[in-house]
From TrEMBL:
Residues 49-160 form the TonB-dependent receptor plug domain. The lineage of its organism: Bacteria, Pseudomonadati, Bacteroidota, Flavobacteriia, Flavobacteriales. Pfam families: Plug, TonB_dep_Rec_b-barrel. GO terms for molecular function: siderophore uptake transmembrane transporter activity. Keywords: Cell outer membrane, Ion transport, Iron, Iron transport, Membrane, Receptor, Signal, TonB box, Transmembrane, Transmembrane beta strand, Transport. This is TonB-dependent receptor. Residues 277-765 form the TonB-dependent receptor-like beta-barrel domain. One of its GO terms (cellular component) is cell outer membrane. It is found in: Cell outer membrane. The keyword Ion transport applies. PANTHER family: CATECHOLATE SIDEROPHORE RECEPTOR FIU, FERRICHROME IRON RECEPTOR-RELATED. It is a multi-pass membrane protein. Residues 1-22 form the signal peptide.
Length: 809
């Protein structure tokens, strides 16, 4: 792989310094001029980007194609203000907006398709919003808004809105087809076609993809396998339009968790026997789980299923001109999701063979390890206990957004009613297994040689399982949202405008959890191997059993969000704006579970409250764009709800404040030969306003870099031939609130080239071409970290190269 990476770098450098200059705008230009771009996200209607008093980044389908992101999270790395962790794989990644900390997922932003949520809450446990969405050629553009009016146009979105807008048909039949392969066994096909069934009246668009690959990290099985199809039909009439659409997603993705590394300050090295760039505990030799249950029957799971959502979406959109400058827009959608989630979650870090045996009650050297696969006795230097976590979720969401708009000479007023009913029912079954601490782990058995095979507690495992179904959870949460909102855009002069919006949320949440008891299999009549009873092993001593006691709970939200902004257009290329916004985020799923299952909660359950102030300067021209947006934000009642490896979770609260500046720019220079795109964030997020004597006061917010940016120069060697280099920098962070565990800064380089031959585009894209070891998170499930030495962390993927052929027709 290192040779391939060096070859790609050399080829890119050769192209970059080629002295052939383009004399006209290249066909494969990376950026569409922002001066005439229209945006709709976070606005009451279509508005020129320069006239919108919001911090918003836009990416057209062509721009997305040039970046060729490996995941939705990789694309969102190009948005300033969004700190994105991409190390989880194609899905299950985390996004933090403007320094707002969370347990992960998309907790303070809402991910939308065509203005409605992918799912109402994008941060349910093990249900990150990107689990249910894929970027393919049916995406027309992306609009990513930070802060601002996010809380007016969506729920739980004070950090912003991420709106993927899908393609629609037009009078001209056209489409695109793409075939892609890679150094990691990728085979992917994307197709999108659209056109008119009746000219000027009835239009259609159909698109989707199918993909299979082995994963950049070596799992020994198909790490990603599945696809998506999306279709819509739109009828246009004199006073409006009606549209219906359907989406089907059925995809399997391996989720990558922390691996062991050796840290000395800012220096990171591989742990012996573990490839930091390509290794993973999620490997085929430990992929099967089949264990008896205390209540009867067996529980079986296959790691190869990974994160496997089956998503069906049916929606409709209707717009009608009522006359007298009034119009009505209604959007409705039903989403049904059935997801099986299976992942390997390390339970702490590697331990020496002797220490692990001692921790499990074996004295001295009276321990013996053997391979489950063959029974061969082995003497591993290090062993690793791993959580084999299985979660099933059944989710549905029905949402309707009704808007009434009135236009007048100086602006417009929009009023709306948003109704959303959603439900998520989940079942957990977690076990722990024992394996070698290597990137191709083998399951281990451990016995106490001071005892006989018939003795009670002789074995500490059952076919490699140390804790059989030690955690079962059956719980449900439902939301019923009833939100009224209004927005005013008023033009004081041709260049000066104001925007004001508010949203009143009367939301109801309820749910239940089922209590559990413990049991074992000692008197079940079952045997461990056909000869010995379960008295001989400790693996079943703390099994979980679901009871018949239900804890029912309910929680109401009665909150007002509001925003006020002004925008001054200096001239057609320059504008400045200022905005204040107040919003909130309702408690997350684990916060509900913790609070209502704790007999005497030490703190009341409250929504997270946010206040934000932002100023902005925008300059857009045909050859140069820049946006500079200073911001300041405060949060109250922020809860931390990480679930630890033993099944418990923390339930601490904090306040934070953050100030910073977002930068975004683009330039086309030297007669279109050189293009340069840039985005970056400088911020200072800290815990503040806590009780006197708090250990967190003044600490840097966990997992938040103070500086991160991306810069990507591209050279258009000819009108058809283009090459680029990308550089991502992710600054130093702290894994924990106490700022004990440092996550060093890292840089990641990518590079690629493309050639346009008529309607066919050939491209090669490389990621992490220098094989950087860069960690995005430590192990939030391990509790308090210890600093240097052997750490558990989640590194970015190793070097990989993809090649594609795209046909436009």
């Amino acid at each position: 792989m290192k040779k391939r990476s060096i070859f790609l770098m050399a080829a890119t450098a050769t192209l970059y310094f080629n002295n052939a200059y383009a004399q006209e705008t290249p066909q494969d230009s990376v950026k569409t001029s922002s001066i005439d771009q229209i945006v709709i996200t976070g606005n009451s209607g279509p508005k020129k980007k320069i006239e919108s008093s919001t911090a918003i980044s836009t990416f057209t389908a062509k721009e997305i194609q040039k970046q060729n992101p490996i995941s939705a999270a990789a694309l969102l790395q190009r948005v300033p203000g969004f700190a994105v962790e991409t190390s989880g794989g194609e899905v299950g990644n985390n996004l933090f907006a403007r320094g707002i900390p969370s347990a992960g997922a998309y907790e303070f932003v809402q991910v939308q398709e065509d203005g409605l949520p992918v799912f109402e809450d994008g941060a349910l446990q093990f249900a990150n919003a990107d689990n249910f969405f894929r970027v393919d050629n049916s995406v027309s553009r992306l609009e990513a808004l930070r802060g601002g009016s996010g809380s007016i146009y969506a729920t739980n979105s004070p950090g912003g809105l991420i709106n993927f807008i899908t393609k629609e048909g037009s009078n001209d039949f056209k489409g695109t087809a793409k075939l892609e392969t890679s150094t990691y066994g990728l085979m992917r096909t994307d197709v999108n076609v659209g056109g008119a069934l009746v000219q000027d009246k009835l239009f259609f668009n159909v698109g989707g993809f199918y993909r299979t690959d082995n994963g950049i990290r070596k799992t020994g099985f198909r790490a990603n396998n599945g696809g998506q199809i999306r279709m819509n039909l739109k009828y246009v009439f004199d006073k409006g339009y009606a549209k219906v659409y359907y989406k089907k997603l059925d995809d399997r993705n391996t989720f990558f968790l922390p691996i062991p590394l050796t840290q000395n300050g800012n220096d990171l090295k591989e742990f012996p026997g573990f490839d930091a760039n390509y290794g993973t505990y999620s490997y085929r030799t430990i992929s099967q789980l089949n264990i008896p249950q205390a209540g009867g029957g067996f529980f079986s799971r296959n790691l190869e299923d990974g994160i496997h959502p089956k998503v069906d979406v049916l929606g409709a959109e209707f717009k009608y001109d009522l006359g007298n400058n009034f119009s009505v827009l209604n959007k409705t959608r039903y989403t049904n999701i059935n997801m099986n989630y299976t992942g390997i979650f390390p339970a702490g870090g590697p331990a020496t063979a002797g220490q692990f045996a001692k921790d499990n009650g074996i004295t001295g050297n009276n321990y013996q390890y053997s391979l489950v696969s063959s029974g061969a006795i082995v003497n591993p230097a290090f062993v690793q206990e791993l959580g084999f976590w299985a979660i099933d979720k059944q989710m549905n969401n029905f949402v309707n957004d009704l808007q009434l708009n009135y236009k007048f000479d100086k602006g417009n007023v929009t009023a709306g009613f948003y109704k959303s009913n959603w439900k998520s029912h989940q079942n957990w079954n977690w076990s722990n297994i024992l394996a070698t601490a290597s990137d191709k782990p083998e399951l281990l058995n451990l016995v106490d040689t001071s005892l006989t095979p018939n003795s009670t507690g002789y074995s500490k495992t059952y076919n490699g399982v140390t804790d059989m179904s030690f955690l079962l959870r059956d719980s449900q949460v439902q939301g019923s949202l009833n939100d009224l909102y209004a927005n005013l855009d008023y033009n004081i002069t041709d260049n000066l405008s104001i925007n004001a919006g508010l949203r009143y949320s009367r939301d109801f949440y309820k749910g239940y959890s089922v209590n559990t008891t413990t049991a074992n299999l000692n008197n079940s009549g079952l045997t461990t191997d056909g000869m010995h009873s379960f008295n001989t092993t400790t693996a079943d001593d703390n099994m979980s059993v679901l009871g018949n006691k239900y804890n029912y709970w309910s929680y109401d939200i009665d909150k007002l969000s509001y925003t006020l902004a002004t925008n001054y257009k200096i001239n057609k290329e320059n504008a400045v704006y200022a905005r204040f916004s107040h919003g909130f985020r309702s408690p997350n799923e684990e916060a509900y579970y913790n609070y209502f299952t704790t007999p005497n909660p030490d703190q009341p359950l409250k929504p997270v409250l946010t206040n934000q102030v932002e100023l902005g300067y925008k300059y857009y021209s045909r050859t140069f764009d820049i946006a500079v947006i200073p911001f300041y934000s405060t949060l109250k009642n922020l809860s931390f709800t990480d679930v630890f490896s033993n099944g418990t979770s923390e339930n601490t609260f904090a306040n934070t404040k953050n100030y910073g500046v977002e930068l975004e720019g683009y330039a086309r220079l030297f007669n279109n030969m050189l293009e340069l795109t840039f985005n970056g964030t400088i911020q200072n997020p800290k815990y503040s306003g806590l009780e006197e004597g708090s250990l967190l006061e003044g600490n840097v917010v966990r997992r938040m870099p103070k500086v991160y940016f991306n810069i990507s120069p591209a050279v258009n060697i000819t009108k058809q031939w283009r090459t680029y280099v990308s550089y991502n920098y992710y600054g130093k962070r702290f894994q924990d609130q106490l700022n004990v565990q440092t996550l060093p800064s890292f840089s990641e380089f990518g590079a690629g080239t493309s050639y346009q031959l008529g309607k066919i585009r050939f491209a090669v894209d490389g990621t992490n071409i220098f094989n950087t070891i860069g960690i995005t998170e430590g192990d939030p499930r391990a509790g308090s970290p210890t600093g240097d030495g052997t750490i558990m962390a989640r590194p970015i993927m190793g070097a990989a190269v993809r090649a594609s052929i795209t046909l436009d027709f």
